[in-house]
Fold:
Amino acid sequence: MEMESDILVMGSGPAGYTASIYAARAGRKTTLIIGPQPGGQLMITSFIENYPGFADPISGPELMERMREQAEKIGVEMVSDTICAVDFSPKQLKCRGESGIDYCARSVIIATGANSKWLGISGETAYRGTGVSSCATCDGFFFRNKKVAVIGGGNTAVEEATYLTNFATSVTLIHRRNSLRAEKLMQQRLLDNPKINVLWNTVVTEILGDGNRVTGLSLRNMSDDSTSQMPIDGVFVAIGHQPATSIFAGKIAMDENGYIIIQNGGQQTSVPGVFAAGDVCDPVYRQAATSVGQGCRAAIGADRFLSAASPCPLCHGHEAL
Structure:
């Protein structure tokens, strides 16, 4: 089975929704493949204070639902599927979904976002879902009146730790360095919170459990190499993200970390007619506002590409400029 469109957008985060809105408003038949995490990373963000237009904080899920409603209202076709393979040959752009459907398009916008990184230590996989998590918003409720730890030192880790104080009796932030990378305002909120304790210069070497659930952590102090154990009921890993670009390996130019390389000052990739926006091509800023801007640029780029390209029947020819 095949589905055809002018512009195919992969991903339903801020970049994907914005790109689809602009593409549909340009009069292009637009299909958005929602992907494995509807709404993207903002679905696990408790509140957003720096998105223009909202004087009061708005939750990540609410903001994404508003973007989805706007895209649907303007005529974007939403498909609940995940792209598992792509064919970016010169004569066609074809993306296969896990459903078995082939999505053919004259232009493609990649906005697949990024996935949580894990520590790769003993116990992490075994207790994932029974005490190990990467999403405080998703799982915080299950740790009401419990003791939890958060691993990391950036914005995500600080926000996760602060959010968890709504449920847990105590939260320990564990960071390998002696200072945080998070925004200063967020740092101050964390340090002022009486429920939060910070372990500096410390790494987790093993997640301990009783076979059913997490019971503690093995720790190593980076300063003096001493070791210790800490009883804990749950641990939240917040050490960053990996761009969701594995299916594009060998198909499109990427850097050594898997981020898609953008060319010519826009959102154009190394493949004519294929554009990228959001966390898949942005290892620096990683903000909702920048993703929205990139989604806009990608859609305008795709529309201009189609306007300049030689007319061709959908899915039966793809000619570069």
Observations:
- The first helix runs from residue 14 to 25.
- The two ends are 29 Å apart (CA to CA).
- The mean pLDDT is 92.
- Residues 114 and 243 are 4 Å apart (CA to CA).
